[in-house]
Amino acid sequence: MKIPAKQFALLFFWVFAFAVGEASSAAKPEPMPLSGAINKAGRQRMLTQRIVKAYCQLGLRVQPDKSRVILEKSVSLFDAQLAELRQYSFTPDIQDALAKEAALWGEFRAIALAPVSHDGAKKLMEQNEALLQAAHKATMLLESASGTKSGKLVNLAGRQRMLSQRLAKFYMLRRWGFSQPEIASGIEQAQNEFGGALQTLADAPGKTMQIQQELDLAKIQWIFFKNALTQHDSGADLMYASNVATSSEHILELMDDIAALYEKSDGS
User: Fold this and answer.
1) What's the pLDDT tens digit per position in 206-260?
2) Using alpha carbons only, what angle is made at residue 259 by residues 162 and 54, rounded to the nearest 5 degrees?
3) Enclosing domain of residue 103
């Protein structure tokens, strides 16, 4: 049966309008639970430290193949998570914090992906704290917006990831010849904060059995990591530096799992 031209044009219009409406609807992101946003924003803090750690490991020739993968994946993940967080309609102050993070990230990213050099490590170290503080502010604003106990625990467990990488970063910077006073004081402060937060998480009520098991493993791994941080070798012997690199990744993985479990418990 032949459809008259006028009716065909009308039918085509409605089919096209429906398709455009469906595409627009599909393009709109689903609302992100605040616990998930806290976890992602908190992971950005960790990545600011992990990138410098991996960069220094490349300069020192500590596990160079693994370090290259860690560096490139960390940069890509920071890009992806920042873009994802910025597309949601958070409050204006959260959006402003994310915009500042994005502004600082551009130059930091360019240095991190340029050929590795001692001067590059110095620039990253100098810019590192401002980027970390911007990511931290966004995370804290999201935690405040959530107003839940589980949101605080997601943030606290997530911050442990950052501290694990911060400790390894300072170790690698010192190994590469940097001797600024803030490196030694930073190691001491980060160790105290990590140990205190680990105890806070252990004492928090309402943990699932899985969270408790992961925390028990984290306590054991923390002992190994602290011991590795006190070891120093010289010259071409990189055994101790390699131990720090490996231990920092193990404890990062554990704390990332714990943060994800708290996030899941908030949504269940």
Assistant:
1) 889 999 999 999 999 999 999 999 987 766 678 999 999 999 999 999 999 999 9
2) 30
3) 31-267
Counted domains in the chain: 1
Exposure on the CB side of residue 154, measured as CA atoms within 13 A: 30
Q: Are 50 and 74 in contact (CB under 8 A)?
A: yes
In a domain, 209, yes or no: yes
Q: How far is CA 212 from CA 101, 204, 219, 261, in A?
A: 34, 10, 11, 10
56: exposed, middle or buried (Cβ count in 10 Å: 0-12, 13-18, 19+): buried
Residue 139 resides in a domain: yes
Retrieve residue 185's tokens: 């004081």
- Is residue 126 pLDDT above 60, yes or no? yes
H/E element holding 39? Answer: helix 34-60
The reply to whether 13 falls in a domain is no
Sequence-distant (6+) residues with CB within 8 A of 207 are: 215
Asked if the model's pLDDT at residue 16 lies above 70, the reply is no
204, pLDDT greater than 60: yes
Q: What is the pTM of this model?
A: 0.86
Do 75 and 108 contact (CB within 8 A), yes or no?
no
Residues 6 or more apart whose CB falls under 8 angstroms from that of 123 comprise 111
Tell me, yes or no, whether 15 lies in a domain.
Answer: no
* CB-based burial label for 21 (10 Å; 0-12, 13-18, 19+): exposed
